[in-house]
Design a protein that fits this description.
The chain is mainly α and 564 residues long. It has 23 helices and six strands. It has two domains: 208 residues, no CATH class; 221 residues, no CATH class. Helices cover 72% and strands 2% of the residues. The longest helix is centred in the middle third of the chain and has 53 residues. The radius of gyration is 26 Å and the shape is globular. The chain starts with 7 loop residues before the first helix and ends in an 18-residue tail after the last helix.
Length: 564
Protein backbone atom coordinates (compact mmCIF):
# COMPACT_ATOMS: atom_id res chain seq x y z
CA UNK A 1 0.00 0.00 0.00
CA UNK A 2 1.34 3.44 -0.94
CA UNK A 3 1.23 6.40 1.38
CA UNK A 4 -1.42 8.06 -0.78
CA UNK A 5 -4.01 5.28 -0.52
CA UNK A 6 -6.28 4.12 2.29
CA UNK A 7 -6.56 0.43 3.10
CA UNK A 8 -10.28 0.31 3.83
CA UNK A 9 -10.48 -3.48 4.00
CA UNK A 10 -7.74 -3.76 6.66
CA UNK A 11 -9.17 -0.81 8.58
CA UNK A 12 -12.65 -2.34 8.74
CA UNK A 13 -11.25 -5.73 9.70
CA UNK A 14 -9.19 -4.40 12.63
CA UNK A 15 -12.01 -2.05 13.67
CA UNK A 16 -14.44 -4.97 13.78
CA UNK A 17 -12.07 -6.99 15.95
CA UNK A 18 -11.62 -4.03 18.30
CA UNK A 19 -15.39 -3.61 18.53
CA UNK A 20 -15.95 -7.30 19.27
CA UNK A 21 -13.32 -7.14 22.02
CA UNK A 22 -15.06 -4.12 23.58
CA UNK A 23 -18.40 -5.88 23.26
CA UNK A 24 -17.11 -8.97 25.06
CA UNK A 25 -15.59 -6.88 27.85
CA UNK A 26 -18.95 -5.17 28.32
CA UNK A 27 -20.94 -8.41 28.17
CA UNK A 28 -18.90 -10.09 30.93
CA UNK A 29 -19.31 -7.12 33.27
CA UNK A 30 -15.71 -5.98 33.19
CA UNK A 31 -16.56 -2.49 31.94
CA UNK A 32 -19.18 -1.98 34.64
CA UNK A 33 -16.90 -3.14 37.46
CA UNK A 34 -13.97 -1.06 36.24
CA UNK A 35 -16.30 1.90 35.78
CA UNK A 36 -16.55 2.21 39.56
CA UNK A 37 -12.92 3.34 39.68
CA UNK A 38 -12.58 7.05 38.90
CA UNK A 39 -9.32 8.14 37.27
CA UNK A 40 -10.03 11.84 36.76
CA UNK A 41 -12.85 13.09 38.94
CA UNK A 42 -16.16 13.44 37.04
CA UNK A 43 -14.30 13.14 33.70
CA UNK A 44 -12.79 9.69 33.15
CA UNK A 45 -13.31 6.25 34.70
CA UNK A 46 -11.30 3.08 34.29
CA UNK A 47 -14.33 1.47 32.64
CA UNK A 48 -14.27 4.10 29.88
CA UNK A 49 -10.55 3.47 29.40
CA UNK A 50 -11.35 -0.24 28.96
CA UNK A 51 -13.88 0.71 26.26
CA UNK A 52 -11.40 2.99 24.48
CA UNK A 53 -8.36 0.73 24.82
CA UNK A 54 -9.13 -1.83 22.04
CA UNK A 55 -9.64 1.01 19.56
CA UNK A 56 -6.34 2.60 20.57
CA UNK A 57 -4.40 -0.67 20.41
CA UNK A 58 -5.78 -1.78 17.05
CA UNK A 59 -5.21 1.69 15.60
CA UNK A 60 -1.56 1.42 16.60
CA UNK A 61 -1.45 -2.01 14.96
CA UNK A 62 -2.95 -0.59 11.77
CA UNK A 63 -0.45 2.25 11.64
CA UNK A 64 2.48 -0.05 12.40
CA UNK A 65 1.63 -2.70 9.79
CA UNK A 66 1.42 -0.30 6.86
CA UNK A 67 3.94 1.92 5.10
CA UNK A 68 4.47 5.55 6.05
CA UNK A 69 1.23 7.43 5.52
CA UNK A 70 0.34 11.01 4.98
CA UNK A 71 -1.14 12.55 8.11
CA UNK A 72 -4.51 13.10 6.41
CA UNK A 73 -4.82 9.48 5.30
CA UNK A 74 -3.71 8.23 8.70
CA UNK A 75 -6.36 10.31 10.47
CA UNK A 76 -9.06 9.08 8.07
CA UNK A 77 -8.07 5.44 8.62
CA UNK A 78 -7.92 5.88 12.39
CA UNK A 79 -11.27 7.65 12.53
CA UNK A 80 -12.86 4.98 10.33
CA UNK A 81 -11.44 2.23 12.56
CA UNK A 82 -12.84 4.00 15.62
CA UNK A 83 -16.30 4.32 14.06
CA UNK A 84 -16.31 0.65 13.03
CA UNK A 85 -15.19 -0.40 16.53
CA UNK A 86 -18.16 1.47 17.99
CA UNK A 87 -20.77 -0.39 15.92
CA UNK A 88 -20.89 -3.62 18.03
CA UNK A 89 -21.36 -1.49 21.15
CA UNK A 90 -24.09 0.49 19.39
CA UNK A 91 -25.87 -2.78 18.61
CA UNK A 92 -25.57 -3.76 22.28
CA UNK A 93 -27.12 -0.44 23.32
CA UNK A 94 -29.96 -0.81 20.82
CA UNK A 95 -30.72 -4.39 21.85
CA UNK A 96 -30.64 -3.37 25.52
CA UNK A 97 -33.18 -0.64 24.77
CA UNK A 98 -35.51 -3.09 23.00
CA UNK A 99 -35.07 -6.32 24.97
CA UNK A 100 -34.24 -7.50 28.46
CA UNK A 101 -30.74 -8.77 27.76
CA UNK A 102 -30.09 -9.61 31.39
CA UNK A 103 -32.02 -12.86 30.94
CA UNK A 104 -29.21 -14.04 28.67
CA UNK A 105 -26.32 -11.77 29.69
CA UNK A 106 -26.66 -11.02 33.42
CA UNK A 107 -23.75 -8.57 33.38
CA UNK A 108 -25.35 -6.28 30.77
CA UNK A 109 -26.89 -4.14 33.48
CA UNK A 110 -28.40 -0.64 33.29
CA UNK A 111 -25.19 0.63 34.91
CA UNK A 112 -23.03 -0.77 32.10
CA UNK A 113 -25.34 0.64 29.42
CA UNK A 114 -25.32 3.99 31.21
CA UNK A 115 -21.52 3.97 31.09
CA UNK A 116 -21.52 3.18 27.35
CA UNK A 117 -24.01 5.98 26.64
CA UNK A 118 -22.20 8.48 28.96
CA UNK A 119 -25.44 9.16 30.82
CA UNK A 120 -27.43 10.19 27.73
CA UNK A 121 -30.48 8.49 26.28
CA UNK A 122 -29.98 5.37 24.19
CA UNK A 123 -30.11 7.11 20.79
CA UNK A 124 -28.01 10.15 21.74
CA UNK A 125 -25.58 8.01 23.72
CA UNK A 126 -25.01 5.71 20.75
CA UNK A 127 -24.19 8.69 18.53
CA UNK A 128 -21.88 10.16 21.16
CA UNK A 129 -20.09 6.79 21.50
CA UNK A 130 -19.50 6.60 17.73
CA UNK A 131 -18.19 10.17 17.64
CA UNK A 132 -15.88 9.68 20.65
CA UNK A 133 -14.36 6.43 19.36
CA UNK A 134 -13.95 7.98 15.92
CA UNK A 135 -12.13 10.95 17.43
CA UNK A 136 -9.97 8.67 19.59
CA UNK A 137 -9.04 6.56 16.55
CA UNK A 138 -8.20 9.68 14.53
CA UNK A 139 -6.11 11.22 17.32
CA UNK A 140 -4.27 7.95 17.91
CA UNK A 141 -3.40 7.57 14.24
CA UNK A 142 -2.37 11.24 14.02
CA UNK A 143 -0.07 10.71 17.00
CA UNK A 144 1.71 7.91 15.15
CA UNK A 145 2.52 10.27 12.25
CA UNK A 146 4.27 12.78 14.50
CA UNK A 147 8.05 12.72 14.96
CA UNK A 148 9.34 10.61 17.83
CA UNK A 149 10.46 13.70 19.76
CA UNK A 150 6.81 14.86 19.86
CA UNK A 151 5.09 11.48 19.99
CA UNK A 152 7.06 10.13 22.96
CA UNK A 153 6.38 12.97 25.46
CA UNK A 154 2.65 13.00 24.67
CA UNK A 155 2.37 9.23 25.07
CA UNK A 156 4.28 9.35 28.36
CA UNK A 157 2.10 12.20 29.61
CA UNK A 158 -1.10 10.24 28.96
CA UNK A 159 0.37 7.09 30.52
CA UNK A 160 1.50 8.93 33.67
CA UNK A 161 -1.88 10.62 34.15
CA UNK A 162 -3.75 7.31 33.77
CA UNK A 163 -1.32 5.51 36.11
CA UNK A 164 -1.50 8.17 38.83
CA UNK A 165 -5.29 8.24 38.48
CA UNK A 166 -5.42 4.46 38.79
CA UNK A 167 -3.58 4.52 42.11
CA UNK A 168 -5.08 7.76 43.38
CA UNK A 169 -6.45 6.19 46.56
CA UNK A 170 -3.09 4.79 47.63
CA UNK A 171 -1.19 7.93 46.66
CA UNK A 172 -3.68 10.19 48.45
CA UNK A 173 -3.33 8.13 51.64
CA UNK A 174 0.46 8.31 51.53
CA UNK A 175 0.45 12.07 50.83
CA UNK A 176 -1.94 12.60 53.71
CA UNK A 177 0.34 10.66 56.07
CA UNK A 178 3.59 12.22 54.86
CA UNK A 179 2.63 15.84 54.09
CA UNK A 180 -0.89 16.51 55.25
CA UNK A 181 -4.56 16.36 54.33
CA UNK A 182 -4.62 19.83 52.77
CA UNK A 183 -1.97 19.07 50.15
CA UNK A 184 -3.58 15.72 49.35
CA UNK A 185 -6.92 17.42 48.64
CA UNK A 186 -5.26 19.85 46.23
CA UNK A 187 -4.20 16.96 44.00
CA UNK A 188 -6.87 14.34 44.62
CA UNK A 189 -10.60 14.41 45.07
CA UNK A 190 -11.85 11.31 46.82
CA UNK A 191 -10.27 8.39 44.96
CA UNK A 192 -9.45 10.26 41.75
CA UNK A 193 -7.26 13.01 40.37
CA UNK A 194 -8.55 16.54 40.27
CA UNK A 195 -9.07 17.78 36.70
CA UNK A 196 -6.60 20.63 37.13
CA UNK A 197 -4.07 18.27 38.72
CA UNK A 198 -4.37 15.89 35.76
CA UNK A 199 -3.75 18.74 33.30
CA UNK A 200 -0.75 20.02 35.26
CA UNK A 201 0.67 16.49 35.58
CA UNK A 202 0.26 15.90 31.82
CA UNK A 203 2.13 19.04 30.79
CA UNK A 204 4.71 18.61 33.56
CA UNK A 205 5.51 15.12 32.25
CA UNK A 206 5.84 16.46 28.72
CA UNK A 207 8.08 19.31 29.89
CA UNK A 208 10.36 17.04 31.90
CA UNK A 209 10.66 14.55 29.04
CA UNK A 210 11.48 17.30 26.53
CA UNK A 211 14.05 18.76 28.95
CA UNK A 212 15.59 15.33 29.48
CA UNK A 213 15.81 14.70 25.74
CA UNK A 214 17.39 18.10 25.10
CA UNK A 215 19.98 17.60 27.82
CA UNK A 216 20.67 13.96 27.05
CA UNK A 217 22.74 14.63 23.94
CA UNK A 218 24.82 17.31 25.65
CA UNK A 219 25.40 15.05 28.66
CA UNK A 220 26.48 12.13 26.47
CA UNK A 221 28.91 14.35 24.58
CA UNK A 222 30.41 15.57 27.84
CA UNK A 223 30.52 12.05 29.19
CA UNK A 224 32.44 10.89 26.11
CA UNK A 225 35.28 13.20 27.12
CA UNK A 226 35.47 11.94 30.71
CA UNK A 227 38.54 10.19 31.99
CA UNK A 228 38.31 6.63 33.25
CA UNK A 229 38.40 7.92 36.82
CA UNK A 230 35.45 10.29 36.19
CA UNK A 231 33.44 7.51 34.55
CA UNK A 232 34.10 5.25 37.52
CA UNK A 233 33.01 7.96 39.98
CA UNK A 234 29.80 8.53 38.01
CA UNK A 235 29.06 4.79 37.81
CA UNK A 236 29.61 4.17 41.49
CA UNK A 237 27.80 7.39 42.42
CA UNK A 238 24.73 6.30 40.43
CA UNK A 239 24.88 2.84 42.01
CA UNK A 240 25.23 4.31 45.50
CA UNK A 241 22.31 6.68 44.92
CA UNK A 242 20.13 3.80 43.78
CA UNK A 243 21.02 1.73 46.84
CA UNK A 244 20.29 4.66 49.17
CA UNK A 245 16.90 5.13 47.49
CA UNK A 246 16.09 1.44 47.98
CA UNK A 247 17.13 1.62 51.64
CA UNK A 248 14.85 4.58 52.48
CA UNK A 249 11.94 3.37 50.35
CA UNK A 250 9.94 1.76 53.22
CA UNK A 251 9.84 5.13 54.99
CA UNK A 252 7.68 6.45 52.15
CA UNK A 253 5.74 3.29 51.24
CA UNK A 254 4.13 2.43 54.57
CA UNK A 255 3.00 -1.00 55.75
CA UNK A 256 0.66 -2.04 52.91
CA UNK A 257 2.89 -1.00 50.02
CA UNK A 258 5.92 -2.52 51.74
CA UNK A 259 4.03 -5.83 51.91
CA UNK A 260 3.28 -5.57 48.18
CA UNK A 261 6.95 -4.85 47.44
CA UNK A 262 7.94 -7.90 49.52
CA UNK A 263 5.67 -10.12 47.42
CA UNK A 264 7.09 -8.63 44.25
CA UNK A 265 10.63 -9.16 45.53
CA UNK A 266 10.01 -12.87 46.15
CA UNK A 267 8.80 -13.26 42.57
CA UNK A 268 11.81 -11.26 41.34
CA UNK A 269 14.03 -13.82 43.07
CA UNK A 270 12.20 -16.69 41.37
CA UNK A 271 12.21 -14.83 38.07
CA UNK A 272 15.97 -14.30 38.20
CA UNK A 273 16.42 -18.03 38.82
CA UNK A 274 14.07 -19.15 36.06
CA UNK A 275 15.65 -16.57 33.76
CA UNK A 276 18.91 -18.50 34.06
CA UNK A 277 17.21 -21.78 33.18
CA UNK A 278 14.90 -20.48 30.42
CA UNK A 279 16.42 -17.16 29.37
CA UNK A 280 20.11 -18.02 29.41
CA UNK A 281 20.19 -21.80 28.91
CA UNK A 282 16.97 -22.22 26.90
CA UNK A 283 15.63 -25.07 29.09
CA UNK A 284 11.85 -24.78 29.42
CA UNK A 285 11.08 -25.63 33.06
CA UNK A 286 7.38 -25.76 34.03
CA UNK A 287 8.02 -27.39 37.39
CA UNK A 288 10.00 -24.51 38.85
CA UNK A 289 7.57 -24.22 41.76
CA UNK A 290 8.99 -27.52 43.10
CA UNK A 291 12.24 -25.83 44.16
CA UNK A 292 10.24 -22.99 45.68
CA UNK A 293 8.32 -25.57 47.74
CA UNK A 294 11.51 -27.36 48.77
CA UNK A 295 13.05 -24.13 50.03
CA UNK A 296 9.86 -23.23 51.90
CA UNK A 297 9.40 -26.61 53.57
CA UNK A 298 13.08 -26.85 54.48
CA UNK A 299 12.91 -23.47 56.22
CA UNK A 300 9.62 -24.42 57.88
CA UNK A 301 10.80 -27.78 59.25
CA UNK A 302 14.16 -26.47 60.45
CA UNK A 303 12.81 -23.40 62.25
CA UNK A 304 9.20 -24.12 63.28
CA UNK A 305 8.28 -23.82 66.92
CA UNK A 306 5.18 -25.97 66.50
CA UNK A 307 4.58 -29.71 66.82
CA UNK A 308 6.95 -30.54 63.96
CA UNK A 309 9.77 -28.53 65.44
CA UNK A 310 12.54 -30.93 66.45
CA UNK A 311 15.55 -29.05 64.99
CA UNK A 312 15.11 -25.53 66.36
CA UNK A 313 17.43 -23.64 64.02
CA UNK A 314 17.27 -19.91 63.54
CA UNK A 315 16.40 -18.32 60.20
CA UNK A 316 20.04 -17.48 59.46
CA UNK A 317 21.23 -20.99 60.25
CA UNK A 318 18.55 -22.62 58.09
CA UNK A 319 18.83 -20.25 55.11
CA UNK A 320 21.98 -21.74 53.49
CA UNK A 321 20.60 -25.25 54.02
CA UNK A 322 17.41 -24.27 52.15
CA UNK A 323 19.45 -22.95 49.24
CA UNK A 324 21.67 -26.04 49.22
CA UNK A 325 18.76 -28.51 49.30
CA UNK A 326 17.01 -26.67 46.46
CA UNK A 327 20.17 -26.61 44.35
CA UNK A 328 20.64 -30.36 44.93
CA UNK A 329 17.03 -30.95 43.87
CA UNK A 330 17.70 -28.96 40.71
CA UNK A 331 20.69 -31.14 39.87
CA UNK A 332 18.72 -34.31 40.65
CA UNK A 333 15.96 -33.16 38.29
CA UNK A 334 18.53 -32.32 35.62
CA UNK A 335 20.13 -35.78 35.54
CA UNK A 336 17.20 -37.72 33.95
CA UNK A 337 16.29 -34.94 31.50
CA UNK A 338 19.74 -34.27 30.04
CA UNK A 339 18.77 -35.60 26.59
CA UNK A 340 15.34 -33.98 26.49
CA UNK A 341 14.50 -30.77 24.69
CA UNK A 342 11.56 -28.46 24.09
CA UNK A 343 8.11 -29.85 24.81
CA UNK A 344 9.40 -33.12 26.27
CA UNK A 345 11.53 -31.26 28.81
CA UNK A 346 8.58 -29.02 29.71
CA UNK A 347 6.31 -32.05 30.33
CA UNK A 348 8.87 -33.84 32.51
CA UNK A 349 9.56 -30.76 34.64
CA UNK A 350 5.82 -30.18 34.92
CA UNK A 351 5.44 -33.71 36.27
CA UNK A 352 8.26 -33.15 38.74
CA UNK A 353 6.53 -30.07 40.12
CA UNK A 354 3.27 -31.95 40.56
CA UNK A 355 5.07 -34.85 42.27
CA UNK A 356 6.53 -32.49 44.87
CA UNK A 357 3.14 -30.86 45.51
CA UNK A 358 1.35 -34.21 45.89
CA UNK A 359 4.05 -35.52 48.22
CA UNK A 360 3.65 -32.42 50.37
CA UNK A 361 -0.10 -33.04 50.45
CA UNK A 362 0.05 -36.78 51.11
CA UNK A 363 -0.06 -38.66 54.40
CA UNK A 364 3.28 -40.32 53.63
CA UNK A 365 5.30 -37.28 54.70
CA UNK A 366 2.73 -35.91 57.14
CA UNK A 367 4.83 -36.73 60.23
CA UNK A 368 7.65 -34.65 58.77
CA UNK A 369 5.99 -31.75 56.94
CA UNK A 370 2.41 -31.73 58.19
CA UNK A 371 0.53 -32.93 55.11
CA UNK A 372 -2.59 -30.92 54.27
CA UNK A 373 -2.36 -29.12 57.65
CA UNK A 374 0.96 -27.60 56.63
CA UNK A 375 3.62 -26.24 58.95
CA UNK A 376 2.70 -23.56 61.49
CA UNK A 377 4.51 -21.23 63.88
CA UNK A 378 7.48 -20.45 61.63
CA UNK A 379 9.41 -17.60 63.28
CA UNK A 380 10.25 -14.32 61.60
CA UNK A 381 13.93 -13.62 60.83
CA UNK A 382 15.75 -12.23 63.88
CA UNK A 383 18.21 -9.36 63.82
CA UNK A 384 20.05 -9.61 67.10
CA UNK A 385 17.36 -9.90 69.75
CA UNK A 386 14.67 -8.27 67.57
CA UNK A 387 12.40 -10.21 65.21
CA UNK A 388 11.72 -8.50 61.88
CA UNK A 389 7.95 -8.65 62.20
CA UNK A 390 6.76 -5.61 60.25
CA UNK A 391 6.74 -5.61 56.42
CA UNK A 392 8.96 -2.50 56.47
CA UNK A 393 11.56 -4.53 58.37
CA UNK A 394 11.23 -7.74 56.35
CA UNK A 395 11.69 -5.61 53.21
CA UNK A 396 15.42 -5.40 53.82
CA UNK A 397 15.78 -9.20 53.91
CA UNK A 398 13.98 -9.47 50.56
CA UNK A 399 16.02 -6.58 49.15
CA UNK A 400 19.29 -8.23 50.18
CA UNK A 401 18.22 -11.50 48.52
CA UNK A 402 17.25 -9.73 45.29
CA UNK A 403 20.51 -7.74 45.15
CA UNK A 404 22.59 -10.88 45.69
CA UNK A 405 20.63 -12.79 43.03
CA UNK A 406 20.94 -9.84 40.61
CA UNK A 407 24.71 -9.62 41.18
CA UNK A 408 25.22 -13.35 40.68
CA UNK A 409 23.00 -13.41 37.56
CA UNK A 410 24.78 -10.39 36.09
CA UNK A 411 28.23 -11.85 36.66
CA UNK A 412 27.19 -15.25 35.31
CA UNK A 413 25.70 -13.71 32.16
CA UNK A 414 29.06 -12.11 31.35
CA UNK A 415 31.15 -15.13 32.29
CA UNK A 416 32.34 -18.05 30.20
CA UNK A 417 29.59 -20.21 31.73
CA UNK A 418 26.96 -17.64 30.73
CA UNK A 419 28.19 -17.63 27.13
CA UNK A 420 28.07 -21.42 27.15
CA UNK A 421 24.46 -21.31 28.35
CA UNK A 422 23.54 -18.90 25.54
CA UNK A 423 25.31 -21.02 22.94
CA UNK A 424 23.43 -24.08 24.18
CA UNK A 425 20.18 -22.11 24.01
CA UNK A 426 20.76 -21.27 20.34
CA UNK A 427 21.75 -24.79 19.21
CA UNK A 428 22.78 -27.68 21.45
CA UNK A 429 24.39 -29.69 18.66
CA UNK A 430 26.57 -26.80 17.50
CA UNK A 431 27.44 -25.94 21.11
CA UNK A 432 28.54 -29.53 21.75
CA UNK A 433 30.56 -29.52 18.54
CA UNK A 434 32.35 -26.40 19.78
CA UNK A 435 33.52 -28.28 22.87
CA UNK A 436 30.87 -27.31 25.40
CA UNK A 437 30.06 -30.13 27.83
CA UNK A 438 26.27 -30.16 27.75
CA UNK A 439 25.91 -32.37 30.85
CA UNK A 440 27.82 -30.01 33.14
CA UNK A 441 26.34 -26.88 31.58
CA UNK A 442 22.74 -28.06 31.91
CA UNK A 443 23.19 -29.29 35.48
CA UNK A 444 24.74 -25.98 36.50
CA UNK A 445 21.79 -24.11 34.97
CA UNK A 446 19.26 -26.26 36.82
CA UNK A 447 21.23 -26.04 40.07
CA UNK A 448 21.78 -22.28 40.09
CA UNK A 449 18.19 -21.55 39.02
CA UNK A 450 16.83 -23.89 41.71
CA UNK A 451 19.03 -22.25 44.35
CA UNK A 452 17.43 -18.86 43.68
CA UNK A 453 13.98 -20.42 43.88
CA UNK A 454 14.87 -22.11 47.17
CA UNK A 455 16.02 -18.78 48.57
CA UNK A 456 12.69 -17.24 47.54
CA UNK A 457 10.84 -20.15 49.15
CA UNK A 458 12.74 -19.74 52.42
CA UNK A 459 11.84 -16.04 52.54
CA UNK A 460 8.23 -16.88 51.65
CA UNK A 461 7.88 -19.33 54.54
CA UNK A 462 9.41 -16.93 57.04
CA UNK A 463 7.26 -14.05 55.81
CA UNK A 464 3.96 -15.93 56.13
CA UNK A 465 4.96 -17.87 59.31
CA UNK A 466 2.90 -20.83 58.02
CA UNK A 467 2.83 -22.75 54.74
CA UNK A 468 0.40 -25.20 53.12
CA UNK A 469 0.62 -27.42 50.01
CA UNK A 470 -1.94 -25.35 48.10
CA UNK A 471 0.57 -22.47 48.03
CA UNK A 472 2.73 -24.40 45.53
CA UNK A 473 0.45 -25.02 42.58
CA UNK A 474 1.42 -25.04 38.91
CA UNK A 475 0.09 -21.49 38.69
CA UNK A 476 3.23 -20.24 40.45
CA UNK A 477 5.49 -21.67 37.73
CA UNK A 478 3.27 -20.21 35.01
CA UNK A 479 3.28 -16.79 36.68
CA UNK A 480 7.06 -16.73 36.91
CA UNK A 481 7.39 -17.84 33.28
CA UNK A 482 4.90 -15.17 32.19
CA UNK A 483 6.73 -12.38 33.99
CA UNK A 484 9.93 -13.39 32.20
CA UNK A 485 8.19 -13.37 28.81
CA UNK A 486 6.50 -10.02 29.40
CA UNK A 487 9.60 -8.39 30.86
CA UNK A 488 11.98 -9.81 28.27
CA UNK A 489 13.52 -13.29 28.12
CA UNK A 490 17.16 -13.18 29.15
CA UNK A 491 16.90 -9.62 30.50
CA UNK A 492 17.55 -8.90 34.18
CA UNK A 493 15.69 -5.53 34.22
CA UNK A 494 12.90 -7.28 32.33
CA UNK A 495 12.42 -9.69 35.24
CA UNK A 496 11.87 -6.75 37.60
CA UNK A 497 9.42 -5.02 35.24
CA UNK A 498 7.52 -8.25 34.63
CA UNK A 499 7.23 -8.94 38.37
CA UNK A 500 5.83 -5.48 39.06
CA UNK A 501 3.30 -5.83 36.23
CA UNK A 502 2.10 -9.37 36.93
CA UNK A 503 2.47 -9.45 40.73
CA UNK A 504 2.44 -5.86 41.94
CA UNK A 505 -0.50 -4.58 39.89
CA UNK A 506 -2.92 -7.40 40.86
CA UNK A 507 -2.00 -6.82 44.52
CA UNK A 508 -2.78 -3.13 44.20
CA UNK A 509 -6.01 -3.74 42.26
CA UNK A 510 -7.56 -6.48 44.37
CA UNK A 511 -11.13 -5.34 43.68
CA UNK A 512 -10.64 -6.59 40.09
CA UNK A 513 -9.19 -9.96 41.18
CA UNK A 514 -11.93 -11.97 39.42
CA UNK A 515 -10.61 -10.74 36.05
CA UNK A 516 -6.97 -11.33 36.92
CA UNK A 517 -6.45 -14.35 34.64
CA UNK A 518 -8.35 -12.64 31.84
CA UNK A 519 -6.01 -9.65 32.08
CA UNK A 520 -3.04 -12.04 32.17
CA UNK A 521 -4.13 -13.63 28.91
CA UNK A 522 -4.94 -10.32 27.24
CA UNK A 523 -1.59 -8.87 28.25
CA UNK A 524 0.26 -11.89 26.89
CA UNK A 525 -1.61 -11.69 23.57
CA UNK A 526 -0.97 -7.94 23.25
CA UNK A 527 2.71 -8.37 24.14
CA UNK A 528 3.21 -11.14 21.59
CA UNK A 529 1.58 -9.02 18.88
CA UNK A 530 2.97 -5.60 19.72
CA UNK A 531 6.27 -6.25 21.53
CA UNK A 532 7.24 -9.94 21.35
CA UNK A 533 10.73 -9.25 22.68
CA UNK A 534 9.32 -7.95 26.00
CA UNK A 535 9.31 -4.58 27.71
CA UNK A 536 13.08 -4.53 28.29
CA UNK A 537 14.56 -7.22 26.04
CA UNK A 538 18.12 -8.47 26.12
CA UNK A 539 20.31 -7.20 23.28
CA UNK A 540 20.46 -10.61 21.58
CA UNK A 541 16.71 -11.24 21.79
CA UNK A 542 16.03 -7.75 20.48
CA UNK A 543 18.23 -8.38 17.44
CA UNK A 544 16.50 -11.70 16.81
CA UNK A 545 12.96 -10.29 16.81
CA UNK A 546 13.29 -6.71 15.59
CA UNK A 547 15.66 -6.98 12.62
CA UNK A 548 13.74 -6.57 9.37
CA UNK A 549 14.04 -9.24 6.69
CA UNK A 550 17.30 -10.53 8.11
CA UNK A 551 19.06 -7.15 8.10
CA UNK A 552 21.17 -6.43 11.18
CA UNK A 553 21.15 -2.95 12.65
CA UNK A 554 24.75 -1.73 12.20
CA UNK A 555 24.47 0.30 15.41
CA UNK A 556 24.03 -2.90 17.45
CA UNK A 557 27.04 -5.04 18.43
CA UNK A 558 27.11 -8.40 16.72
CA UNK A 559 26.77 -11.72 18.51
CA UNK A 560 30.07 -12.96 19.85
CA UNK A 561 31.22 -16.54 19.66
CA UNK A 562 29.62 -18.15 22.67
CA UNK A 563 31.59 -21.29 23.10
CA UNK A 564 34.93 -19.74 23.95
Amino acid sequence: MTNSSIDIKQTIRLGSIAGIVSLCLSAIGMVELFGKRQLISEVLTLGEVIVFLPTILFTFMLMRNGDDRKARNAVIEGALLGVVSALPLVLLILFASAFNLREYFPNVSPASIDLLTFGFSYAIGAVVLVVILGVIGGLTSFLTTLPERIQSPISKGVLIVVTVGLFSELLADRLRDLIGLGFSRIIFRGKALQVLSAIVLFFLTIGLDVLRSSQEGAFESRRAGWTEQQSKIYRYGTLGGGIVLLLVLPLFLGTYLSEVINNVGIFILMGLGLNIVVGFAGLLDLGYVAFFAIGSYTMAVLTTQGELGFVGMTFWQALPICVLFSAMAGVILGVPVLRMRGDYLAIVTLGFGEIIRILALSDLLKPLIGGAQGVLRIPKPPLGSTALVQPEQFYYIVLAGCLIAWFVSSRLSESRLGRQWMAMREDEDVAEAMGIRLVTTKLLAFGVGAAFSGLAGALFASKLTSIFPHSFKLEISINVLCLIIIGGIGSLPGVVIGAFILVGLPELLREFAEYRLLMYGALLVVMMLAKPEGFIPSAIKKRELITFEGEIDPSEPQIEAAGD
